[in-house]
Amino acid sequence: MKQKTLLLIALLCLFIGTAQNDTRLYDIINTVSAERIEKDVTTLVNFGTRHTLSDTTSQTRGIGAARRWIKSEFEKISSDCNGCLEVFYQKDLVKKGEGARIVKDVWVVNVVAIKRGTKHPNRFIIMSGDIDSRVSDPNNFTSDSPGANDNASGMAGTIEAARVLSKYSFDSSIIFVGLSGEEQGLYGGKGLAAYAKQNNWDIVGIFNNDMIGNITGVDGVVSNRDFRIFSEPVPPTETEEERRARRFYGGEVDGISRQLARYVYKTTKTYMPEMNPMLVYRLDRFGRGGHHRPFNDAGFAGIRIMEAHENYTQQHQDIRMEDGIAYGDVLEHVNFEYAKKLTAVNAINLASIAWAPPAPKTVEIGGVVEPAAKLKWSKVDGAMGYKIYWRDTTSPTWDNYRYVGNIDSYTLNGIVIDNFFFGVAAIGKDGHESPVVFPNKVFR
Ligand SMILES: [Zn+2]
């Protein structure tokens, strides 16, 4: 009798354990390899320069050789999984003078690898790194420009995530992409975002990885656990009506990119609790840019994942000694164990979103001058249930939730609408959740 009870408790614990944490995500974390990332960053650095305007005909030097190598790596991964990746170039001609950093006509070429989802083939979550590099003068396309951290680290992490995730099957599609033209004015991201619109891709969001390998900050802090998640507050594409509604119903810090940032924060805290993700409430670093922005400009969710402590003497610099300081973005400064961790952060979030059902399209909220908050939402295909999240208006994270089963409305009795922010997420069969949707409609 006693033994039976113990067995029952053990089984119950096992059930609860698997219901909350998908152990495949731990396998994914453990499979990401620092050695392979080091090998790939080294290969990228050895192309001499990967400047967007650099040579494209040499087999050993310049961005042409670099992108052909990246494509061949994706193809190698694909041939190891029965052709599970669709690999292709997506390119746009950018004309001389279109920007100050386009000093001649150039094809901006991105390398795309799609792991097609079995259930939602047209629904995409994207991980990106950049192919291109630069030195002090942004238009110098001949000098040695290793770009080891900026951004061979993000590129190598993207290739490694493709290797690891190619062994699994997902409901939604995952895109691994190397973007070009970042340093010349974010042209590659602009091109792919336009391509996505033309092809009616349903994009959940993009994780733009730009510099994921430096742990020694110019601020003197050394940390191999801190990293930043940048997200803009609300989309630049919002309508005047949406802007006005926000004044009365809230949402100043609850745009789609911010929800994606919170998603990454939460998954990291759950599966890699040793890491310190920092939610930074801005589009990007102060006055600086990155390749998630063109996606934001097109109305897609997008965040930047990167190191927390940058070193400015080691980015966008001619390789030189000056006043005893060694300038340059060289291989020796990249910490591959750290790049591995941030690659794992990407991989578990890509997997979790690709295994989760889509988020509800509409979420309505009501409960004005009532002792209860009321929520209604549109049901989604494949959801086992829904979670209503809420938090104090000053909290950056969704601190409270109630699981409500497979229904499409719920009243939170005793929770006054004025004092919290609310949202709804769809929950799939292995416990994977969609990003939280902030209410986009009000009812009385
Ligand atoms: Zn850069």
UniProtKB/TrEMBL annotation:
Signal peptide interval: 1-21
Location relative to the cell: Secreted
Keyword field: Hydrolase, Metalloprotease, Protease, Secreted, Signal
Record carries keyword Oxidoreductase: no
Annotated ranges, domain Peptidase M28: 110-312
GO molecular function, one term: metalloexopeptidase activity
Name of the protein: M28 family peptidase
Organism, as annotated: Flagellimonas alvinocaridis
